[in-house]
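In the design runs reported in the main text, the only information available to the sequence generator was the tokenized backbone. The following block is the verbatim input for one such run; it is reproduced so that readers can re-run the procedure and compare outputs position by position.
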């Protein structure tokens, strides 16, 4: 067993390898694309544009003030990931990205299997992901893109712009931009074959990729194409009992025991971290949870036995258990726990096809097209069974009960009892299968022209994309049918039937949930119809963009560069749920697959145990124009050279009206060798997305407290078309050192960032809205009526919250030749780190306080996130050692840590016994060998030391891990071969 000191020494040794570049880097001078072949080399300059992802200015020599981290194809090859998303998500500035290991405990979130990138922990909705500087149709109702649908073998670089870029690119670029840039002039053929699995013999994966490109018509035309297939089989659910999948021993059912606030006057903490948490409100095959028979569980063939409570607990016959804190004991019979049964990694299949063609009409004008098809098919289990926590009533005349229980009922003068079960009798677990299919087409033109004696370049494109999302859920139960099926009585001829005659007439088949007994297939077919929850949605995006670049005149320090243009965009979506989830409507009437059933709620739906999808539709359009200028300030041998970069964008949304964004920045290449300073501040926006504007309508009954009176109200959930854009102020100050003469091959930078976001769109519950209205918020008062006969509260998203994120980005790169020490090849050291100093959110809700997310390792924003690598390369071989680091953190910054003499807890400031949550340090290694001119082989081992994920306790049923920060799969091996000619 490693001691903390031993672990610290290992960490320090790895960090010491990167000590020479403990600063973090953002080396992003504009770099022209290198010609791919002779035909490309002879093409006009128009066909070799300068790419500056954080700006729309493409003048050569332009240095933008916005920090950008660049990963080129060689960097991506070394990481050898089956999905480029995983390679990008490891960068320190990327925090909160979603992938196939996140949201696997969710049925209805809509983001399952979605590979979307998030900068600064601000969420994918505030990170703009582009391909070749172009927007891509969203892959769910929030409008975020799925990187898995991108063509990946032709990606030659990825630029991560860690600063506000709304003035350059428009809405959503609050946290920054991730731009995937493809090789448009690739010539030849290349392929990649890769396979791997984890140390536990699961998550077997295979990737096949091929790309081809050729110049035509004497180099005036060019055509490229690529196809890709990858399959990651995932980690199967181990089902019940808390045992880790396939021999993973680290899962220990972590949870928080939470005492009622009223009991915290004794000086003891309210929260306590525990392992081997036992939910005492149900058991694997059933448990009586209240009354004189409390503590009776049922085993094989329904035989009753005394349930073994953890914590030496004794049932009180009132539902409570001595020594336990609802809902958890510690230890005891853990066979029915479900938290470990969540899929760790989804079974995912990717299929992508891409082609691009261009034709040079004249030496100065080119037209092009591209077509992209991407399909991502995921499958996972959110939880085994369908746990019922102490919310069932079993009648004592139920014929499935053992005679001893019927006798005990009579002896105790009861006719029913409360009951809880994990429903382990269900033969199959719930399976969620999201399938996203993208089809996208782009046509455009670029070129150059002369005006007023100056050369100008232009770029124009129109795109249309569609993402079809189909979610199918199998083995899901209908609540009303389940309740009817378990309530059985003796019928004619001593048969067992359902008690409710209406249910019997509708085909009810009784189900025995008393003990470990084989489930009647007919009963399972009744409560889990073959056509489970279904959702079909379609996202459409149409974009037209035109931009012009030029240098119209010069000042004393050099030419003035200008970029301007206009864009128009239309976004639309619709979602259709099945009738049992949505309720019956014109769009989803009862069908043969979903026949009418008198037990089911046809008005509002919500009949499934989970996965109740509802209908919605909406659209909006955007028109905008932008202008960007680069003004040289001075240029001299002693002072160096400096410029000012300004940009503005005016946008008109069909829903929320007009909004302006702008950017003001400067870079100063000082007279000190290699030293450059930069600063930029911007006003950025995020417009409300389709889901927030046009959320699916839903009406249910609820209760609220108004002025001390409890009222029954209609809770009406709808979208809010009056939402305003979120407004952010993003400021970055940085220092860059680029290859000084005294240290050739060395680059480093340090940047301070400060992001403030106001009018953050957030949703509230009914009581929170009532409280805000009472506090004087007239906008929210308009969303309710608590006076009329029909009282209602409308649940909508509102512009209420605010966020502020501050910290530091650090990066460094040092490359040097080893010939001086008598060794072949070169050595490259690289380090990146992000320090989140503070990340505060004010919800705007009455009775709450601002929350601090920085360093909360239950979330996605650690205090420090680092990535380091040491690569040795020769003409024929390479070897890389790399490290990934997450700093230690806390469970919550609002907790008060204490062991004795604790203050009384409050709703906003709870006490906790231990508020420390460990970070993680991972070692990865990889290498390649060039067999001949066309073939190279490689290997990669991630999480070399098989570091276990840190326990992430929950307050209820949860799967006890945080895949947003920690590696949950374990050591992973991959081997592959690349070919190019």
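Verbatim output:
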């Amino acid at each position: 067993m490693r001691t903390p000191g031993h672990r610290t020494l290992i960490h320090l040794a790895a960090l010491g390898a990167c000590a020479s570049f403990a600063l973090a880097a953002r080396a992003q001078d504009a770099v022209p694309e290198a010609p791919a072949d002779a035909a490309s080399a002879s093409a006009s300059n128009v066909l070799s544009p300068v790419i500056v992802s954080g700006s729309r200015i493409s003048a050569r020599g332009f240095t933008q003030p916005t920090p950008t981290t660049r990963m080129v194809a060689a960097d991506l090859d070394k990481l050898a990931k089956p999905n480029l998303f995983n390679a990008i998500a490891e960068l320190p500035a990327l925090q909160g990205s979603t992938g196939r290991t996140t949201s696997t405990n969710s049925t209805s979130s809509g983001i399952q299997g979605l590979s979307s990138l998030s900068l600064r922990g601000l969420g994918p909705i505030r990170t703009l992901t582009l391909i070749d500087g172009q927007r891509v149709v969203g892959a769910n109702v929030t409008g975020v893109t799925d990187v898995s649908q991108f063509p990946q073998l032709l990606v030659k670089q990825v630029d991560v712009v860690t600063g506000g870029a709304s003035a350059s690119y428009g809405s959503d670029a609050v946290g920054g931009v991730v731009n995937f840039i493809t090789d448009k002039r690739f010539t030849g053929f290349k392929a990649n074959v890769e396979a791997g699995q984890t140390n536990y013999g699961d998550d077997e994966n295979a990737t096949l990729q091929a790309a081809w490109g050729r110049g035509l018509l004497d180099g005036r035309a060019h055509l490229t194409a690529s196809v890709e297939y990858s399959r990651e089989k995932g980690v199967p659910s181990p089902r019940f009992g808390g045992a880790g999948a396939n021999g993973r021993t680290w899962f220990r059912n972590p949870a928080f025991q939470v005492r009622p606030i009223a009991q915290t006057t004794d000086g003891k903490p309210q929260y306590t971290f525990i392992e081997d948490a036992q939910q005492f409100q149900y058991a694997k095959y059933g448990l009586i949870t209240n009354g004189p028979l409390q503590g009776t569980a049922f085993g094989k063939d329904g035989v009753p036995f005394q349930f073994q409570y953890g914590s030496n607990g004794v049932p009180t016959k009132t539902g409570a258990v001595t020594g336990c804190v609802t809902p958890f004991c510690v230890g005891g019979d853990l066979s029915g726990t479900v938290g470990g049964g969540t899929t760790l990694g989804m079974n995912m299949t990717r299929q992508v096809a891409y082609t691009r063609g261009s034709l040079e009409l004249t030496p100065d004008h080119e037209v092009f097209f591209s077509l992209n098809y991407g399909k991502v098919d995921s499958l996972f289990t959110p939880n085994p069974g369908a746990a019922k926590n102490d919310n069932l009533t079993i009648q004592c005349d139920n014929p499935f009960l053992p005679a001893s229980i019927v006798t005990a009922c009579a002896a105790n003068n009861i006719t029913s009892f409360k009951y809880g079960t994990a429903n382990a009798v269900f033969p199959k677990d719930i399976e969620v299968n999201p399938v996203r299919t993208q089809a996208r087409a782009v046509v455009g033109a670029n070129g150059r022209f002369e005006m007023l004696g100056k050369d100008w370049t232009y770029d124009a494109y129109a795109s249309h994309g569609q993402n079809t999302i189909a979610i199918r859920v199998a083995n899901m139960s209908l609540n009303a049918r389940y309740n009817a099926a378990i309530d059985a009585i003796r019928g004619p001829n001593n048969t067992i039937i359902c008690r409710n005659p209406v249910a019997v007439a509708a085909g009810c088949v009784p189900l025995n949930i008393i003990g470990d007994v084989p489930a009647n297939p007919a009963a399972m077919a009744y409560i889990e119809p073959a056509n489970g929850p279904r959702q079909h949605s379609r996202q459409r995006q149409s974009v037209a963009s035109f931009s012009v670049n030029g240098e119209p005149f010069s000042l004393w320090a050099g030419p003035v560069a200008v970029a301007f243009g206009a864009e128009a965009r239309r976004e639309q979506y619709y979602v259709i749920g099945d009738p049992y989830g949505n309720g019956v409507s014109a769009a989803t009437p009862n069908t043969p697959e979903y026949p009418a059933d008198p037990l089911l709620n046809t008005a509002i739906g919500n009949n499934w145990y989970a996965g109740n999808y509802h209908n919605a539709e909406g659209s909006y359009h955007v028109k905008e124009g932008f202008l960007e200028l680069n003004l040289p300030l001075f240029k001299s041998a002693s002072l160096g050279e400096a410029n000012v970069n300004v940009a503005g964008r005016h946008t008109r949304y069909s829903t929320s009206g007009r909004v302006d964004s702008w950017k003001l920045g400067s870079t100063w290449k000082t007279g000190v060798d290699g030293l450059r300073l930069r600063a930029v501040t911007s006003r950025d926006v995020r417009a409300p997305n389709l889901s927030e504007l046009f959320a699916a309508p839903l009406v249910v009954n609820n209760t609220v407290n108004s002025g001390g009176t409890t009222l029954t109200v209609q809770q009406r959930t709808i979208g809010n078309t009056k939402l305003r854009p979120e407004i952010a102020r993003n400021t970055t100050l940085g220092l860059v050192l680029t290859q000084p003469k005294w240290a050739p091959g060395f680059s480093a930078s340090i940047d301070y960032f400060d992001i403030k976001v106001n009018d953050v769109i957030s949703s509230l519950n009914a009581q929170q809205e009532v409280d805000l209205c009472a506090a004087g918020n007239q906008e929210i008062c308009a969303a309710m009526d608590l006076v009329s006969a029909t009282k209602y509260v409308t649940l909508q998203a509102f512009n209420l919250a605010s966020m502020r994120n501050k910290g530091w980005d650090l990066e460094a790169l040092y490359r040097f030749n080893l010939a001086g020490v008598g060794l072949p090849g070169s050595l490259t050291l690289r380090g990146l780190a992000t320090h989140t100093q503070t990340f505060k959110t004010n919800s705007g809700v009455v009775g709450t306080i601002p929350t601090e997310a920085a360093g909360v390792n239950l979330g996605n924003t650690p205090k420090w996130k680092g990535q380091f690598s040491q690569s040795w390369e020769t003409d024929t071989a390479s070897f890389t050692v790399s490290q990934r680091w997450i700093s230690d953190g806390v469970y919550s910054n609002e907790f008060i840590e204490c062991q004795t003499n604790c203050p009384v807890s409050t709703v906003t400031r709870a006490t906790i016994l231990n508020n420390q949550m460990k970070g993680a340090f991972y070692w990865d290694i990889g290498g390649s060998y060039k067999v001949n001119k066309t073939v190279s082989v490689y290997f990669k081992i991630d999480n070399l030391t098989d570091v276990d994920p840190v326990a992430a306790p929950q307050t209820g049923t949860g799967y006890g891990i945080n895949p947003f920060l920690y590696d949950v799969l374990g050591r992973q091996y991959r081997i592959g071969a690349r070919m190019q000619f």
